[in-house]
Amino acid sequence: MFDSTRSLLTTDKTRTFLDNWERVVSDKGAIPEWTDIDPSVIARILPDIWLYERLDAENDYLCRLAGDEIIQRWNRKMLRRRFTEFVDPAVSRLMMQNMDTVIRERGLAVGKTPTANDTGWYGERIYAPVTRGDAWCVFGCTAYVARNEVIELRADTMVNRFHLFDAISGAAIREHTY
Predict the structure, then answer these.
(1) What architecture is domain 3-177?
(2) Distance of CA 137 to CAs 17, 50, 66, 118, 132, Å?
(3) Cβ distance 137 to 99 under 8 Å?
């Protein structure tokens, strides 16, 4: 179902996230609730998991979950803080546009970007929409890979270019660049 998405992923962590996503959406047949995600199934990648809740009234996102690896890489307090409180305004606008696209188009986004604080690393990211009661959230996994490690940075997965897939069927929607 998600073979095209899987073909763009180069790390075990993001592939594990996708495998779990595929299982959850095939069982549910719809965008899952946050509570549909079983932490025990993704225990190995919990340090690399994050969840931001969309705050429509404030046009912002609230960090609801950030694994240890995410917090270490960002090197700042994130939990229960608004995105605009801990990310540079220009960067936060771009990242929130990407998360808004995932929610609006009910898409699964995959791509690689440089990390905000550590220029020697890339983050291979996968974003997915989930709900939390009446709120929309973006749930994801970031696998950090050293630039000097052998990774395949193909032209179709380069920096700040995300591929968007239907979050239920896995069908390609479009390329999303910011």
Answers:
(1) 2-Layer Sandwich (3.30)
(2) 16, 10, 13, 26, 7
(3) no
